[in-house]
Amino acid sequence: MVVSTSMIHSKLLGNKNQNNNLICSENLYKGACIKIKNSNKTFQIIGINIHKEICWVREWPFAYNSKKTFALEISQISLQIFCSNNYS
Predict the structure, then answer these.
(1) How far is 72 from 27, CA to CA, in rounded Å?
(2) Total-model pTM
(3) Bridge partner list, 44
(4) Could you give the CA distance from residue 11 to residue 88 in angstroms, rounded to a whole number?
(5) Where are the chain's structural domains?
């Protein structure tokens, strides 16, 4: 599946059975920046497995001295956002 990197935001799908919003996994792509539930930090997707509904992320902006990446269930993503180059 080829996904355009020009996508900036993905749609949030309202789930009437829960108070939480779900991100549409088909709109995610490698390099996208996201917010995750229970965190104020921004993360960048560095890998995706749509079939298993997981992705691998790192904190954004990327710290060159840190190689911390971790797996995350796509259901834990609360919002897909624009990756800002403004580090202030």
Answers:
(1) 16
(2) 0.68
(3) 33, 58
(4) 27
(5) 20-81
